[in-house]
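If you are new to this repository, start here. Below is one unmodified record pulled from the training split, so you can see the exact layout before writing a loader.
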Amino acid sequence: MFKKLIEAKTHQRLSGADRKKLKRTIRDRFPNASETDIDILIPPKVEITVAKYPNRVLVYGIENDVPIFFDVDGRGSQIFPSVYALWKVPELLPAFVLKGGEVSHYIIGGADLMYPGISIPPEGLPSHSVGESWAVKVPGNQAPIAVGTTTMSSSEAVKAGLRGKALKICHYYHDLLWESAEKCYVPNAGFLDDLVLEDPSLSSGCDGAYSFEGEASIMEESGANNDTGVVADAKDDHVSNSNIGENDLNEQVIADVQDLKLTEDGDQSNVDSEQRLILSVEDVDTLLDKCLLQALHTTVKDKDLPMPGSTLWSSHVLPCRPEGITLDIKKSSYKKLSKWLQSKSSTGLISVKEDKHKKETTLVAVNRKHADYASFKPEKRKAEKIEQVINQTANEGQVILEVEEIFKPSVHVNPIFASVGAETGKLFSASEATDIVFQYIEKENLVKPTNKSIVVLDAILCDALFKGTVKKGATYPTEIHKKDLGSTFVNRMQAHHRVTRGTESAVRKGGLKTIQILTERRQGNKKVTKFSGFESFLIHADALASELQKKFACSTSVAELPGKKGHEVLVQGGVIDDLAKHLVQQYGIPKKYIEVFDKTKR
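And here is the target side for that same chain:
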């Protein structure tokens, strides 16, 4: 079941009522569980989360810890404990004991359990019915390695000569549900040693504790069957040995691809010189900072923000490294891209925000008045000069469009701006607004002496950041991390946007609305394409209709939008794709601001 990656639809905390309902379900489904066992699995003062998937599967877990139960049908009738839960309470389910460690290779490879692989005790096969939940253990070890449902009763199994499938495995050690844990719980040394002795493959990378950060995108279609018998576990062994999270894999792949391009493009002498050059950890840290500042000066523009951390790394930071040098984040003192970005955010150079669902850090703003930014002198490179010439040639005959997100001080943050002497009626970029709040912090000396990355909140700053957001009866925060300060402060301001086309410019309140292009059929099975929203990008309806009439050699017309402000242009024919390309190439409108709807496809 947990072999194919499927993105969860929602992640949320359980309410008090749902928490009690989950406990009742566990009592009904697992009569062997005592109240103490249930409190171990669902600690009273710990938040429980539930992830909902498109195939109706629900995964319950301890927040920032491990998954404890999964519900196959989403109704509570087929709820199973994870191996983490069984490691905490081994007697929660009855268990089949394998004949030997060699059988466990097949189980952790994804195969179902067959009766010939079960160790039958002297008193005979344990009594069971069809559809019961059972665990799987290796001999001499109380830590289960898998859980599933019985496919036939014990009496039917005896009649069949103890042949056939005994247990349909739903979840096993080292599948994707196991890997989704943010903080892996591992049995104590006594549990683990027996498991390792029986099956050496299970000990890969384990020295008493695991730390595995994984994506919570782990569900296979619940109706999928797994009757293949034996599944090769070489891939699983590789995953268990790696002991790194998905973010690390992404960063490593990005770095490897960049290095591969250098090897392909360069000659062998460049490769050899690169291999001979070994940088220390301090040198890598210094080079990282230099490449980031180079990128912030040359290629990272405010209009491109927010920007995913992986994009910043691959498209901006890596191209700024010196020729013939390999830049690997893992060889720095930070080890991870997210930790490096958060470190730079704590200094006030940039503002970042972490997406807990996608497990990615996003660059939100750049403080271009920061001392490090102001004192850095970017290098002019050949590639940049060539790119400038290419862009200049490509933009000939095209009016450049610029879209910028700007913010106006609200009543919440006005005292901060007034305190540093900034105008409250002016519009600021995200980086400028971040610089304002850091000026206030410096003026009031609010940095925590024992931890320079923490800001102590005074009354004015606390109200600016959190007034009206804290529930009645709850306490206000007393401090905030620098990496969260910029994004929190900007979110309390009024969002605006500025659109500039040539000499024409307009500032409007709120977010920028998208252009909508729609193709539908009219009488006589004829297609018509109509689109609206272009006026937000300073494009005039009549001029555009005349241009498209010549471009596509068809009739066009302009009509007012019913019940709304603005106009829509109608073009005869199904030119939805060509029209979208024309807006991108001729007007420079980013693709993310164009929505396409084709109603002619059935």
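Two things worth knowing about this chain: The CA atoms of residues 408 and 426 lie 6 Å apart. The mean pLDDT is 78.
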